[in-house]
Design a protein that fits this description.
The chain contains four helices and seven strands. It is an alpha+beta fold. The strands form two sheets. Strands 3-2-5-6-7 form a five-stranded antiparallel β-sheet. Strands 1-4 form a two-stranded antiparallel ribbon. Helix 1 crosses helix 2. The longest helix is centred in the C-terminal third of the chain and has 11 residues. It is elongated and about 60 Å long.
């Protein structure tokens, strides 16, 4: 594809963001950078560029392999971008998500008053 593609449209097309408007907002908030420079949603993407996307607590890095203007299925994303995110960043996400101090079995119902007090003691409520 030889046509010019905006960064917000490309990020939506390769499934980095669920909606194009969300990709636009993230660009406006300064969470999308190319070469260390924050970009506006209208920035034109070029093949071979490296894009950093900050989704707390992780900063993802992607290399543009090919441009596209239509959203593609998840299996086809690897044809259009390469994930360059370092293992340390992925580890941050695992640490962040694995922070649960307690767990409840699915389908066990609402916690009782005693259960809530026990949870409160563990989480320092």
């Amino acid at each position: 594809m030889d046509e010019a593609i905006r960064i917000d449209k490309w990020l939506w097309s390769v499934r980095v963001y669920a909606t194009r408007s969300l990709a636009t907002e993230e660009c406006k908030k300064g969470r999308v950078t190319i070469g260390g420079v924050t970009v506006k949603p209208s920035r034109i993407v070029k093949s071979g560029e490296t894009i950093q996307v900050r989704k707390n607590p992780v900063t993802y890095s992607y290399r543009v392999i090919e441009l596209l203007g239509k959203r593609v299925g998840a299996k086809l994303v690897s044809l259009y971008m390469e994930d360059l995110t370092p293992a340390e960043e992925i580890k941050k996400l695992e640490d962040y998500q694995g922070g649960a101090l307690f767990s409840r079995d699915r389908g066990s119902g609402r916690p009782t008053k005693k259960d809530r007090r026990d949870i409160g003691r563990v989480t320092d409520w």
